[in-house]
Amino acid sequence: MRALTPAMEDYLKTIYQLQQKMGKVTTKSVSEAMKVKPASVTNMLKKLARLKLVRYSAYRGVQLTPAGEKMALKIIRHHRLLELYLRQALKMPLHKVHEEAERLEHALSEELEDLIAATLGNPTHDPHGDPIPTKDGKIHQTHHPHLAEVPQGQRFLIVRVSDSDPDLLRYLEELGLVPQAVVTVLNREPFGGPIWVKVNDRTHALGQEAARHVFVQPITEVTHRPSLRQTRKQKR
Q1: Which CATH number is 23's domain given?
Q2: Contacts of 114 (CB under 8 A, 6+ apart)
Q3: What is the pLDDT of residues 27-66, one digit of tens each?
Q4: How many domains does the chain fold into?
Q5: For the whole model, what pTM was predicted?
Q6: Does 89 map to a domain?
Q7: Predicted local confidence at residue 23, as pLDDT
Q8: Which CATH number goes with the domain that contains 173?
Q9: DSSP string of the chain?
Q10: CA distance 11 to 75
Q11: Is 160 part of any domain?
């Protein structure tokens, strides 16, 4: 197969993400997600179908083939490893790593991918809490409740924040509502009012929409993974 263009890779990644959310993917949903005219989407889907990366029908929508899914997960792995590297090694703000990784993901070589993964300790999640696909194209998806639906008075660990809106992500970061922070829902105002939360000994009023972008799990369910140093000691 000839090398794919960055645009082709973006389409495969977008289709994969839409499949995870919606199941059935239409030309319209791809058009809206990528902010591209429907006619352009149709032309690209036909090209990808000729490369046997998608199955496409004007009336049945589009679906990734096994080869297309493997390629999509490869790009997602590049993207999320880059996000984590930018965050951990270069201390880039959380709300900026997504956009930067979008630009770099297509140019990442296999050798540099392996080096970044090894340097970071072969991580399983990106800085937003999303799972990083493995080198062999596997991904472990988990589902967690968001802050708008969890009970009051219980402590939760933030395990993921949505990276779909950079402005919202910057706002959450300013409040300290980031992965690995501990948060408690103190109170809910009636009639769809704000949710009062405590994080890092500070109390904030959080709107319902923002709360739906913060995903958590109860502290009682948290199992801490051993550090790389602890693992090495155990092996000795």
Answers
A1: 1.10.10.10
A2: 135
A3: 999 999 999 999 999 999 999 999 999 999 888 899 999 9
A4: 2
A5: 0.85
A6: no
A7: 84
A8: 2.30.30.90
A9: -PPPPHHHHHHHHHHHHHHHHHSSB-HHHHHHHHT--HHHHHHHHHHHHHTTSEEEETTTEEEE-HHHHHHHHHHHHHHHHHHHHHHHTS---HHHHHHHHHHHGGG--HHHHHHHHHHTTS-SB-TTSPBPPPTTS--------BGGGSPTT-EEEEEEE--S-HHHHHHHHHHT--TT-EEEEEEE-TTT--EEEEETTEEEEE-HHHHTTEEEEEGGG--PPPPHHHHHHHH-
A10: 11
A11: yes
Within a domain: 11 = yes
Helix axes 94-104, 166-175, angle to 10 degrees: 140
What is the C-alpha separation between 84 and 99, in angstroms, rounded? 13
The last residue of one of the domains, among 28, 47, 64, is 64
**Average pLDDT, stretch 117-122?**
96
**Which range of residues forms the domain containing residue 155?**
147-221
Spatial distance between the Cα atoms of 181 and 139, rounded to a whole number of angstroms: 24
- Tell me, yes or no, whether 236 lies in a domain: no
Cβ neighbours around 111 below 10 Å, total: 8
